[in-house]
Amino acid sequence: MAVPEISIARLTPSHLFFVVASDGVFEFLSSQTVVNMAAAYKDPSDACAAIAGDSYKRWLELENQTDDITIIIVQIKGLSNSGVGTTDSEVHSRPCQIGGSINQSTAIVPPLMHQRPLESDVG
Known about the structure:
The protein is of the alpha+beta class. The chain is 26% helix and 23% strand. The protein has helices at 23-26, 31-39, 44-62; strands spanning 17-22, 69-77, 90-98, 106-109. It has a 4-stranded antiparallel β-sheet. Helix 2 (31-39) packs antiparallel against helix 3 (44-62). It comes from Gossypium raimondii.
């Protein structure tokens, strides 16, 4: 059974997107590789297709089977913390799935690997 990698980050205007993907994506691609690939595309649908395609190709090269390959990239533009139910942000997500059913083990990868401490964490 796969153990999910989970990161928690306070989203800020400097975050461009976040990734939610199954373990089938991360079997042969590191989290940083996925983030770098996602950042290289303007359209999240194109990024999903490229990452899913690369994952699928690597599965077939290194194994005689594939795992489920599911990825969602959510682009965030103009994120605002103006309050519950009010936001100036645009959120775009487009799922892309190759293979079997969605696996319950997912990873959340923030686009910036260095995160600022939460306000409650600061002395």
